[in-house]
Structure formats: C-alpha cells, structure tokens
Design brief:
The chain has 220 residues and is mainly beta. Helix content is 4%, strand content 42%. The strands form four sheets. The protein has a five-stranded antiparallel beta sheet, with no helix packed on it. Strands 8-14-11-12-10 form a five-stranded antiparallel beta sheet, with helices on one face.
Length: 220
C-alpha cells in the first residue's frame, strides 16, 4: 500500500477473510491523511485470468471510496518500472456505506498483481478504506498463456521462500521453476546452483553479486 494509516490499518487487512465493515475492529486497509496518490495492491502468487473483483467498503467514512481504478499487472510495478497495467474496472461514484460490490472486468484480464488506485482526492483527509478485497478468476495455464523470466544480471533476490538445488544450466533451472510452485529463481553460473522462489514478498531485499543472476518479474 502507498502509505499505512496505523498498525490496525495494514494492507493485509483487506485480504484477511473478514468481511466486517467496522473500521475500529475489522482491520480495514487505510492510507495516511495527506497521501494524495493512494493505492493498494495484492500479489496473487500466481498468474490468473481475472474476471471479477469484490470490494467491501467501510461503514465509517464510507464516502471516501470513490474515483478509483482496478488494474492488473503481470510484472511487479514496485520493482519493475516498465510494468504496464491492464484496466479491469473504473469507478467514479462512491461505494455505499458498508456495501459489498462485485466489479466485473470488461473482459478477462490475465496477471499476478491486482492494484487499486484512487485517481481523484477531494482533500487531504479523503483516504480510501478497503475492508475486504476478493479476486475471482481461474489459473492461467495451457497454450494461451506463457510465463516470462526477465534476467537481472549480478543480482540476487533474498527471499525466505526458496529452495536451492544443483542443475546442469540456467535452462534446466527455468524448467524446474516452470514445473513447480515457483514464481522466480536465482541462478549461480559458477556453482550451477538453482534457487527457486515460491512466494516473493514486497519486503524481499536484493544483493548485488557478480556470481548470481535473478530471473522473474519482481525486478527488471
């Protein structure tokens, strides 16, 4: 999320499975006052054909949830400046008090990151509040979908969710990643080590090192 209002308003509050609408107790994701370009995003940890997004509004300050777009990215826009969004839906009018609305994409959109951005702020206190967000779609597999691993030289993504094994070459590493629950990998061309990354997080760090290359969409 672009900013966080307080410890009870974390971005994860919008995907905790709680459909409650009380801001004080249901841990709704909220940006800070003064954030004039607010956004929220979730990593689906996989690629999906997305057809609907369901949003639950708060019962307090409910009129703040207006003028927003729902966009989908295949690449992580935080670490990849060239990431290009595909719009699922654009909403102008406010969502009602404590209301849950199902927004149908104009056509199915394929991606991994769902991004909700408010494009008009009426004042510095007009902070969007998301009590719950649900994404509906199907897993992207088969002939109509291909995965891309962008190479970032001399860089290693440090992730807690990894598995290291020996391989013959980088193509073998990519093949292993493609046949496992894997979203990216690091490859060491000197030791021929393959580090498969199953669930990158927005808090993962990077290390600049000449022996490793990163392949994925979280960096570019």
């Amino acid at each position: 999320m672009s900013t966080v209002f307080d410890a009870n308003s974390l971005p994860a509050g919008a995907v905790d499975g709680n459909n409650g609408t009380k801001w004080s107790s249901d841990l709704c994701a909220t940006t800070k006052h003064g954030d004039m370009d607010p956004w929220w995003m979730v990593d689906l940890h996989g690629y999906f054909h997305i057809h609907d997004v369901i949003i639950t509004n708060c019962d307090r300050w409910w009129q703040h949830l207006h003028s927003f777009t729902i966009d989908v990215f295949t690449e992580n826009p935080i670490g990849c400046a060239r990431a290009t969004p595909v719009q699922c839906y654009n909403r102008t009018d406010p969502v009602g008090r404590g209301e849950t609305v199902q927004f149908k994409c104009r056509s199915p959109v394929t991606g991994r990151f769902v991004h909700i951005k408010k494009w008009r702020m009426t004042n510095t206190y007009d902070t969007p509040i998301l009590c719950e967000v649900q994404v509906l779609g199907t897993k992207a597999t088969g002939r109509g979908f291909s995965r891309h691993f962008h190479r970032v030289r001399d860089t290693r993504l440090n992730s807690k969710n990894d598995f290291i094994s020996g391989v013959v070459d980088v193509m073998n590493c990519a093949s292993r990643c493609g046949h496992r629950d894997c979203l990216a990998f690091n490859y060491n061309q000197n030791s021929q080590q393959c580090q498969l990354i199953s669930a990158p997080t927005f808090n993962d760090s990077t290390t600049m090192t000449s022996s490793w290359d990163y392949y994925g969409v979280d960096l570019c």
